[in-house]
Amino acid sequence: MTLTARQRLELAALLAIGITPFYLNGLYNETLAKEHRAWFWVVEVFTWIVMPAMLLIVGRLRGLFTFTELGLSRKVCRRDLPWAFLALLVIIPFLAIRLDMVVYQWAHSSLPSGWPHPTFHYSDVVPLPGPDTGLWRLLVLLHLCMTAGVVEEILYRAMFDRLFPRGWAGGIAFVIISTLVFAGAHWEGGLPNVTEAAILGVFYATIYRLTGNLWPLMLGHTIIDWYWFSS
Q: pLDDT tens for residues 40-97?
């Protein structure tokens, strides 16, 4: 379903609400994690679970998208292609992981930090391995990896794509603008992290625009984050 200009404005407003905390959390995560750990998790759960769920509900009720239009189905290129869907579930995560490894090594060995940034990393809140921390460590890893893998792909790729018309011009605009917004939200990691996010963003946005299916991207994103957070 093609959105009207008014509907695009409504969707843009929902995206702004959902994405804004990702630009701001670099300003308060470090303080909350070190001095107010309980509040850190309250804010974390609201930002990554409660608010995205509310945005999905509102967007669905307002007729801005269906779950199929967001790519949350077996359809590939708008057709029911189960074998292509299964192939994408294997190929896309593999390519994403390999690309991320190469980009990470190059960016963090070749690029300066670029600007002062917080010393906080999400891995700081992951409990260390041990007999008394196993369950909490698993829960924290599942939260960090699955929320980022699911929420970021829904917002930056699936919902963002709905703002742009079909065709090459709309596709190019979607890839460029969504990538810039996605990369900018990683500013607190410095220039290497922003560059890594930008290159992965181009890959993710291009694959989504070509296939229209979100599941392989969410799976690949989740696996990549699991690797970095757990290690």
A: 999 999 999 999 999 999 999 999 999 999 999 999 999 999 999 999 999 999 999 9
Q: Which two tokens stand for residue 189?
A: 């990691």
Contact 15, 160 (CB under 8 A): yes
Of 216, 45, 15, which is closest to residue 144 (Cα–Cα)?
Answer: 45
Q: Given CA atoms 78, 12, 199, 193 in this order, what sign does their dihedral have?
A: negative
Q: Is the pLDDT reported for residue 1 higher than 80? A: no
Cα(105)–Cα(192) distance, integer angstroms: 9
Burial of 52-76, coded b for 16+ CB within 10 Å and e otherwise, reads: beebbeebeeeebbeeebbbbbebb
The pLDDT tens digits of the residues spanning 125-138 come to 999 888 888 899 99
Task: Please state, in angstroms and rounded to a whole number, the distance separating the CA atoms of residues 32 and 30.
Answer: 6
How far apart CA 100 and CA 152 sit, in angstroms, is 16
pTM higher than 0.90: yes
In the block, residue with structure tokens 């509102």: 58
